[in-house]
Amino acid sequence: MSNPVSAARSVSRPVAQPRLGRRARKLLADLGTYAVLLFGAIIMAGPFVWMLATAFKTPADQFTRTLLPNPVTFENFQTLWDKLPFTT
Questions:
Q1: Which tens digit of pLDDT belongs to each residue from 59-73?
Q2: Which residue, 23, 24, 62, 76, is most buried by CB atoms nearer than 10 A?
């Protein structure tokens, strides 16, 4: 016959997973928050960057998918200055 005490000791217990400390949980939460904020900032800045890039393109190139204009022109600003009455 087996000893009941030794039989109880031979039963395997589930291994306890190490728990994250309070600082580690806060660090992970902060990193997640900053990742979401950075993603939102990139999404919101995209149209603004596209608008600035389009302002320096020629009228014929304004609907191309290139971000950097070639050649860079100030023609749009000259047209705007001539057509709107800034001096009144």
A1: 888 888 888 888 888
A2: 76
- Per DSSP, helices labelled H in the chain are 4-10, 22-55, 75-83
Measured CA to CA in angstroms, residue 77 lies from 52, 60, 66 at distances of: 12, 15, 20
Q: What does each C-alpha distance from 48 to 11, 14, 27, 51, 86 come to in angstroms?
A: 64, 55, 32, 5, 24
d(CA 9, CA 34): 48
b (16+ CB within 10 A) / e for 16-35: eeeeeeeeeeeeeeeeeeee
In angstroms and rounded to an integer, the radius of gyration of the C-alpha atoms of the chain is: 32
Are the CB atoms for 74 and 56 separated by under 8 Å?
yes
